[in-house]
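3.2 Worked example (two chains)
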Amino acid sequence: MQVNVQQFLGVGYSTSIAEQQRWEPSKARDRLSKEIEKIGPIAPQLPSFNPVSMSPHKSLRQNEECLNLNISTPMRNEKLPVMVWIHGGGFQSGSASLPEYDGKKLASAANVVVVSINYRLACLGFLRLCDISHGVIPSTGNEGLGDQITALNWIQNNIHHFGGDKNNITLFGESAGAMSIASLLASPVANKLFHKAILQSGAGHTYSSVEKANKVADEFINSANQLGFTLEQLPSLNSDALLSIQAHFLARPDVYQKFGILPFTPVIESQLLPQPPHEAIAQGKAKHITLMAGTNTDEWTYFAALLQQNMASKTALNDSISQLVDANDIDKCLTQIDEQLNGRNRPINYQNQLSEMYREFWFTEPCHRLLDNQIKAGGRAFRYKLGRRSPIEQFGCTHAADIGFVFDITDAHFHGQEPRVSQLVNEIQTSWAAFAHNGSPATAESPWPSYDENLCFMMFDHEQSYLAEHSLNVIDFWSRVSDQKLASF
């Protein structure tokens, strides 16, 4: 049943982060903001490119005073479950205020309060400068994560004004948003502030050690020096100057060779994130939180297009695989991924083989370990896969395809126009709503056992949805890869 939904936009959840305080921890506001009628500013960021639409993302108003959130609520005379969306974007870009994250339809269909939050990004949110500056600049590299925690504290104190139940809060997020949620699960400061979590295309193996974060900081300052800036100037530079340094830093090939494609990530440090998420979850630190997590069947094709990858030879393919898999296992790996490509009727070529391998390594295996660790530690967990392919052949069911189904904001060019598209919107929203209300995505029409029962998961496939089981052969093969290796994204 569709219900009327009221929206409150640009609600400030933190005290001021003025320029001289740009790397200070955020702090929840004591009272409601009056700025609740228009979209608030988003975190300063570089222009980002969408390989699906082949165009830059539309830019919203940017300002360092970006710590605001948006609320979509049915405003009934009852306490409703709250779903808090944490956006993705590689910890470098994105916003809670993008049109594709409009919570109005989800709030209506699911009968929940939907909250989406903005947080500091990249050099303002995930750059550790406290060590390299000998404490003069206070940033630990977890300012963005701290902002998310501040927002959760604000929600605990204020969501009842908007019809929400502070005792029934579900986090949900995609990509870096899901990776953020994994860090929040592991944070003793955060994981008493919510009760359930849905991790879409992201898990618990994305983080930086202090050593790595300090090396990133060294190279960031190297870029600053090359542009004529010094470390001491960083607190007083305007946002545009900081972003110019960030652009220089991210344009250097050696940065990706040293740090992978995500140089800005949450940092393992004593204040907010004392240990890697996968370790904390395995030790039962989040067993009181019910989890649901999943991946798409062709995650890497998005990044292949973004990076303009075109694997042209068997030698180049083997070289790429050998960086992640032992040399003795390359042939076995290729045999396995060929079987998977055949099973989904995807053409077997060098690029598709690489994309399949990266999908397993960076997304599927971390997702499995997240849920498996949670169950073994005594918690509850559910799993899904999405397989609805785009009409654009090169993408298949790529990264971020799930977002349109969750928010009921699909694109005919990318998602298609067949009845299956609207059917998937209904199925996914119904399951996400059931999880938010009851702690299980199962519905009367769609039984969905927990992941500990024969490693069973819901497959939202191209033509129909059904229960499937994770292959023991696949689990056996990828179990040889260390957690440390999986954390090298």
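3.2.1 Second chain
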Amino acid sequence: MKNFKIIVYLLFCLFITNSSYSKIDVNARYAIVQDHLSGEILFEKDADEKIYPASMTKIMTAIVAFDLLKKGETSLDEKITISENAWRLSQSGYSSMFIMLNDQVTVEELLKGIIIVSGNDACVALAEGLSGSEIEFVNLMNEKAAEIGMYNTNFNNSSGINDVDNYSTVRDVLKMSRYLIKNYPEYYTYFKETTFTWDRTGGNSITQGNRNPLLYKNIGADGIKTGFLTVEKYSLASSVIIGNRRVNVVGSGFENKNARSRESIKLITWSLRSFDTIQIAKKNEPIDFLDVWLGKKNKVDAVVKEDIYFTVPKRKKSIINVVIEYQGPLKAPIKKDDKIGILKVYYKNDVEKEYDVFSNEDIKKTNIFLRLLKSLNFLVWGDA
């Protein structure tokens, strides 16, 4: 027998001005907006067209380094000797940390030089120090891109310097931005630091500001990375957190710095005003108790293995139904983490999302005498 349990019924009567949920124009060639928690795409413009990601490439450079830190294959205080290849980039007019030849610089200092001041020299130094060569490090970047699902991306260097074979899309940049924020919160804090002072060996200290203009706007921005190439113009991957909402935006092809800042803020403001995000379920927290047949307990805790959020427009009336569908009553024995049903999220009577539901506990069979008694009761009374 298939059972259905309605566990949540949410009715939103959100009356707002007509301008709050409306179409939006953005002065950028390519753009995409996402609610971070639900993963819903709220807006996109040519999001799968090829772009040159410029210094947004450095997001993946940081991800690979964070992976190696997590695996214990390096540490923040490991020192890397600066090669001539890396040093020359600090002398050639590119964005630089201004490292010095043969100096020894820690992984953490190089990461700050990459993330905060967009140092191309720091990228090469880190890549060589962690993988032996920039080429080998770039191989790790492309492997990670494939793992994340960045299907229209190829990295050909660690910095984003001009290279026709270093390409991506704003959708793929969004994917790696969200991945970094979700998986490395302890390191993501580097992205909101507004200044970095590099105490050079044999030279004066150099203090530089973060290139991300939104960090200075008091709008909740805490990352993530700017970019510029003459062919691509200006680009920005940004993230803003307000209360319980986080919105990620990626734009490319802004005509100038002012447009990059202005249009990104416009997209952020529009998405926060136009949509609400609701938490449906929390990871590993019981969402309901499903019926059990012939078990030592008559109910089993039902859980999902991820936080579940849903984003809806803020306009007039929106209805969400959340239903657990299962074959019940569930027959004991049941083991913890056994799949026991499916959670379905309905929006306006259509199934929008489905998630597996699992047992949060072991349920053993009851003894044979109670099983016989329950079976007899069922035959006589039709009541399990």
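3.3 Remarks
The longest strand covers residues 2-14.
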